[in-house]
Amino acid sequence: MPTHTSDLINFDSLLSDDELQWRETIGAFVVEEVKPYVGQWFEDQHVPVELIPRFGEMGMIGAHLKGYGCPGRSAVDYGLAMMEVEAADSGLRTIFFVLGSLAMTSIHAHGTEEQKNRYLPKMAAGEIMGAFGLTEPTAGSDPASMITRATYRKGQGWELNGEKRWIGLAHLADVTIVWAKVSTEDLIAAGYGDNVRKDREETVAGFIVPRETEGFDPVPIDHKLSMRVSTQSHITITNALVPEDSILPARFGLSAPLMCLNEARYGIGWGVLGAARDSLEQAIAYAGERTQFGKPIASFQLTQKKLVDMAVALNQGQLLALHVGRAKDAGTLDIPMISVAKLANCRTAIDICREARTVLGGNGIRHDYSPIRHAANLEGVRTYEGTDEMHTLILGQKITGIGAFS
Questions:
Q1: CB 139 within 8 A of CB 145
Q2: Angstrom distance (rounded) from CA 170 to CA 147
Q3: Catalytic entry in 19, 136, 163, 385
């Protein structure tokens, strides 16, 4: 039998026993130790970093990564975890994809063996935190126009200068992966000539930057009306010197950070459905209890239509997420499929949260009920890791073979 009242298609029957157990373990933890407090956390703009070691113990941080102390679970397992966490709050789920999909994946995919062994086990355990610095004040959807630059100083290391903005966890993280332009000449001088294209004057490289690095100044961004259970920073980088071995040398070019973004986008395609499911199930429960004209509002045809439309849309989104996850695990994933899930499921989720709020009436604007908080969060989620417009153009190029990005 379906676990959730919103499940009209017995979605659970499509999951293995191990997947169901994994989901229920995480879901139970979220219900008991997160949901009772998350509304107040949102109001207080509290970031519950105290939970990170607990999630590390449960094998949730970097769950999809293998080796180096990482859990090594499937893509579907990772997606299910993100859905359960986001059923509490999108900001909390953001913490996990910053740690796992972005910071840890950067090191796992592009770092040296020494870097992987040094950082990944502690990050997976929740003992240290990482951040991912790609976006800039003038380079959001167009990361190729970044101005942050790394310059090689022989015998000293790499000197970084520039700015980053909307960088999750940066002022709390022990290390931030900073992506910067670097000249081919400098990479050759540093001994990385075999890994760089010599027909280009410059490329993009990632650098592991410890929080205490002089000249590295992350400042939290305040006055947010979305994503208040997570934190983002504006980083000013002025003559920040990091050791020569701070560079991630396995891959250079913009494809390196974009590979990490695809992992994050995949998790979002699952996660937003948790926010939608939680909003819908609160609306279903409320409609059964709230009486008007002498009977519960769930007995009215218009209310039932709202609930059914939301449930059908949610179930369709779950099928899409599962299909993409199964393809990812099978090695048959076509990358634009991730854009389909991110684009469609964000749209679906925010529509469900808004509609669920209407079922709650005036009571729905208090943090006692989650839909309006979820809807506010999803305004942020819909924007980051690729706006609707960017994913539309990715899919437009897939369909037509023509890039329309500029």
A1: yes
A2: 19
A3: 385
Topology, domain 257-400: Butyryl-CoA Dehydrogenase, subunit A; domain 3 (1.20.140)
Superfamily (CATH H level) for 11-124 = Acyl-CoA dehydrogenase/oxidase, N-terminal domain (1.10.540.10)
The span from the CA of 73 to the CA of 378, in Å, is 27
Which residue in this structure is represented by tokens 């040398």? 249
Q: What gap in Å lies between CA 29 and CA 359, rounded to an integer?
A: 28
Q: Taking residues 252-265, report their average pLDDT.
A: 94
For the record, the structure tokens of 92 come out as: 């909390």
CB 224 within 8 A of CB 250: no
Does an H or E element contain 291, and which? strand 291-292
122 three-state secondary structure: helix
**Residue that is written with structure tokens 């970084």 in the block:** 160
Q: How confident is the model at residue 2 (pLDDT cuts 50, 70, 90)?
A: low
- The domain 130-252: what is its CATH number? 2.40.110.10
pLDDT, tens digit (0-9, with 9 covering 90-100), for 106-157:
999 999 999 999 999 999 999 999 999 999 999 888 888 999 999 999 999 9
113 in catalytic set:
no
- Evaluate whether 279 touches 356 at the Cβ level (below 8 Å): yes
- Per domain, the residue ranges of the chain are 11-124, 130-252, 257-400
- Report pLDDT for 45: 94
- Tell me the residue type at 97: F
